[in-house]
Amino acid sequence: MKKVEAIIKPFKLDDVREALSEIGITGMTVTEVKGFGRQKGHTELYRGAEYVVDFLPKMRLEVVVTDKQVERCVEAISSAARTGRIGDGKIFVTEVDRVIRIRTGEEDEQAV
Predict the structure, then answer these.
(1) Tens of each residue's pLDDT in the chain, 112 residues
(2) Rounded distance, CA 3 to CA 9, Å?
Protein backbone atom coordinates (compact mmCIF):
# COMPACT_ATOMS: atom_id res chain seq x y z
CA MET A 1 0.00 0.00 0.00
CA LYS A 2 1.04 3.58 -0.56
CA LYS A 3 0.22 6.94 0.96
CA VAL A 4 -0.25 9.64 -1.65
CA GLU A 5 0.14 13.11 -0.18
CA ALA A 6 -0.53 16.15 -2.34
CA ILE A 7 -0.05 19.84 -1.64
CA ILE A 8 -2.41 21.77 -3.91
CA LYS A 9 -3.95 25.21 -4.36
CA PRO A 10 -7.11 25.59 -2.25
CA PHE A 11 -9.45 26.36 -5.15
CA LYS A 12 -8.48 23.07 -6.82
CA LEU A 13 -9.67 20.86 -3.94
CA ASP A 14 -13.15 20.15 -5.35
CA ASP A 15 -11.72 19.29 -8.78
CA VAL A 16 -9.24 16.87 -7.22
CA ARG A 17 -11.90 15.29 -5.00
CA GLU A 18 -14.16 14.72 -8.02
CA ALA A 19 -11.30 13.26 -10.07
CA LEU A 20 -10.45 10.81 -7.28
CA SER A 21 -14.10 9.89 -6.82
CA GLU A 22 -14.37 9.08 -10.54
CA ILE A 23 -11.62 6.45 -10.22
CA GLY A 24 -13.17 4.91 -7.09
CA ILE A 25 -11.15 6.62 -4.37
CA THR A 26 -13.55 8.03 -1.82
CA GLY A 27 -11.67 8.29 1.48
CA MET A 28 -9.19 11.08 2.07
CA THR A 29 -7.92 13.47 4.71
CA VAL A 30 -7.64 17.18 3.94
CA THR A 31 -5.76 19.76 5.99
CA GLU A 32 -5.40 23.49 5.50
CA VAL A 33 -1.69 24.28 5.49
CA LYS A 34 0.62 27.16 4.65
CA GLY A 35 3.93 27.05 2.87
CA PHE A 36 6.03 28.15 -0.04
CA GLY A 37 8.50 26.80 -2.55
CA ARG A 38 9.73 28.53 -5.67
CA GLN A 39 6.56 30.60 -5.54
CA LYS A 40 7.99 32.39 -2.49
CA GLY A 41 5.53 34.92 -1.15
CA HIS A 42 4.06 38.19 -2.21
CA THR A 43 3.61 41.72 -0.89
CA GLU A 44 0.23 42.96 0.31
CA LEU A 45 -1.05 46.27 1.55
CA TYR A 46 -2.98 46.51 4.84
CA ARG A 47 -4.14 49.87 6.21
CA GLY A 48 -1.49 51.65 4.22
CA ALA A 49 1.36 49.45 5.39
CA GLU A 50 3.10 47.04 3.06
CA TYR A 51 3.95 43.60 4.38
CA VAL A 52 5.29 40.37 2.93
CA VAL A 53 3.21 37.21 3.01
CA ASP A 54 5.85 34.47 3.14
CA PHE A 55 3.57 31.48 3.62
CA LEU A 56 0.80 30.95 1.12
CA PRO A 57 -2.41 29.00 1.86
CA LYS A 58 -2.42 25.45 0.48
CA MET A 59 -4.37 22.24 1.01
CA ARG A 60 -2.72 18.96 1.98
CA LEU A 61 -4.59 15.92 0.73
CA GLU A 62 -3.70 12.46 2.06
CA VAL A 63 -4.96 9.22 0.52
CA VAL A 64 -3.91 5.63 1.24
CA VAL A 65 -4.36 3.35 -1.76
CA THR A 66 -3.41 -0.13 -2.90
CA ASP A 67 -0.32 -0.53 -5.04
CA LYS A 68 -2.57 -1.06 -8.09
CA GLN A 69 -4.31 2.30 -7.60
CA VAL A 70 -1.20 4.47 -7.14
CA GLU A 71 -0.56 5.53 -10.74
CA ARG A 72 -4.22 6.30 -11.46
CA CYS A 73 -4.43 8.26 -8.20
CA VAL A 74 -1.31 10.31 -8.97
CA GLU A 75 -2.50 11.02 -12.52
CA ALA A 76 -5.98 12.07 -11.31
CA ILE A 77 -4.52 14.48 -8.74
CA SER A 78 -1.94 15.84 -11.12
CA SER A 79 -4.35 16.55 -13.98
CA ALA A 80 -7.09 17.98 -11.74
CA ALA A 81 -4.74 20.25 -9.73
CA ARG A 82 -2.68 21.56 -12.65
CA THR A 83 -3.11 25.22 -13.62
CA GLY A 84 0.19 25.53 -15.44
CA ARG A 85 1.34 28.29 -13.12
CA ILE A 86 3.98 28.33 -10.44
CA GLY A 87 2.73 27.02 -7.09
CA ASP A 88 0.54 24.19 -8.43
CA GLY A 89 2.00 21.96 -5.72
CA LYS A 90 3.68 18.61 -5.21
CA ILE A 91 2.72 14.96 -4.86
CA PHE A 92 4.60 12.62 -2.52
CA VAL A 93 4.22 8.82 -2.58
CA THR A 94 5.42 6.82 0.42
CA GLU A 95 5.18 3.22 1.55
CA VAL A 96 2.55 2.24 4.15
CA ASP A 97 3.46 -0.78 6.25
CA ARG A 98 0.16 -1.36 8.02
CA VAL A 99 -3.39 0.00 8.21
CA ILE A 100 -5.94 -0.88 10.89
CA ARG A 101 -9.59 0.16 10.83
CA ILE A 102 -10.35 1.00 14.45
CA ARG A 103 -14.08 0.15 14.32
CA THR A 104 -13.77 -3.38 12.93
CA GLY A 105 -10.16 -4.34 13.44
CA GLU A 106 -9.75 -5.02 9.69
CA GLU A 107 -6.22 -4.64 8.47
CA ASP A 108 -4.32 -3.55 5.37
CA GLU A 109 -6.25 -3.56 2.06
CA GLN A 110 -9.54 -4.48 3.77
CA ALA A 111 -9.11 -1.43 6.03
CA VAL A 112 -8.50 0.98 3.17
Answers:
(1) 999 999 999 999 999 999 999 999 989 999 999 887 776 666 666 677 766 667 788 999 999 999 999 999 999 999 999 999 888 999 999 999 999 999 999 998 888 8
(2) 19
Question: Three-state SS for 26?
Answer: coil
Residue 7 burial (CB count, 10 A): 19
Determine the Cα–Cα distance for residues 69 and 55; give it in Å rounded to an integer. Answer: 32
Q: How many CB atoms lie within 10 A of CB 14?
A: 10
Contact (CB, 8 A) for 30 and 101: no
pTM of the model: 0.84
Length of the chain in terms of residues written: 112
